[in-house]
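Field log, afternoon session.

UNIT: design team B
ACTIVITY: writing a sequence onto a fixed backbone
BACKBONE:
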């Protein structure tokens, strides 16, 4: 049985995350002493702060929970068409974190079970123009090591499932103090939720997240496909903390991705234009 905790943060992100992890059995349930732990935050674009991207504060709380068990901790991210992870780390303050290695998965191809043992998925609660919602499963799409990942938007559901099979999450933490509805993941409208959602399975956690957003999981293609492919069981969940009905809000879903961005993603699906875009972005 999967466990998913829904915790009212009461305006305190640190206490909310700690309480959520404790309700799942504590960090000791997920990390053994001496293991190498990877943290995958949502750093989709260096120009935007929370709730578009994951906060350094949330990452710091996770680090504080992991450090008593191991000093081998890495943060992982991959490039996209216009920016490399190094730019994201610097712009969003991740380069201030102490005692961790910041990894560019394009330059350092790391495999779970080889270069690292456990994966903590730190994500946000958002709607999406290309995937209906973007929570735990979609965040792991960011582990695809090439900057041309946008070319997979046409088959986004299958791409998300394929990458999650390579990078299965051990612990999922959704920072939902502020969420996003409408034209997410970048241009939506903030929604104050004051929640931390955490779970021991990414499919189950995303299922609960969808319910909290008032979006039927059956409408989220990649979630249904992930469940069908055995990445998690949406029918076997133990709910901890707040009930879904007590925190649920009806989110406005995104309209289809505008033509101008579809064209941009089509162009960025080729390696040479992507490199040009990246160099231009880093020069500004």
């Amino acid at each position: 049985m999967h466990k998913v905790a829904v915790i009212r943060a009461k305006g305190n992100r640190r206490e909310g995350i700690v309480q959520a992890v404790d309700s799942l059995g504590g960090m000791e349930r997920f990390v053994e002493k001496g293991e190498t732990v990877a943290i995958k935050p949502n750093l989709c674009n260096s120009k935007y702060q929370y709730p578009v991207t994951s906060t350094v504060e949330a990452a710091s709380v996770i680090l504080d929970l992991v450090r008593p068990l191991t000093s081998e901790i890495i943060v992982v991210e991959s490039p996209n068409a216009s920016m490399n992870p190094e730019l994201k780390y610097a712009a969003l303050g991740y380069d201030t974190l102490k005692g961790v290695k910041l990894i560019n998965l394009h330059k350092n191809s790391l495999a779970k079970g080889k270069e690292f043992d456990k994966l903590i998925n730190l994500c946000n609660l958002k709607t999406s123009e290309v995937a209906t919602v973007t929570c735990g499963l979609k965040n792991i799409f960011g582990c695809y090591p090439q900057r041309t990942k946008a070319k997979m938007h046409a088959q986004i559901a299958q791409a998300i499932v394929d990458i999650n099979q390579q990078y299965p999450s051990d612990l999922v933490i959704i920072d939902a103090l502020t969420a996003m509805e409408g034209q997410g993941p970048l241009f939506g409208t903030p929604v104050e939720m004051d929640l931390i959602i955490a779970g021991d399975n990414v499919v189950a956690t995303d299922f609960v997240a969808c319910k909290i957003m008032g979006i039927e999981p059956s409408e989220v293609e990649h979630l249904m496909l992930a469940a069908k492919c055995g990445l998690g069981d949406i029918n076997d969940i133990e709910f901890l903390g707040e009930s879904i009905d007590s925190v649920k809000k009806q989110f406005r879903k995104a309209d289809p991705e505008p033509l101008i961005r579809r064209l941009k993603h089509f162009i960025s699906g080729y390696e040479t234009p992507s490199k040009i875009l990246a160099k231009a972005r880093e020069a500004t």
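LOG NOTE: The chain has one domain: 2-283.
NEXT ACTIVITY: expression trials, pending approval
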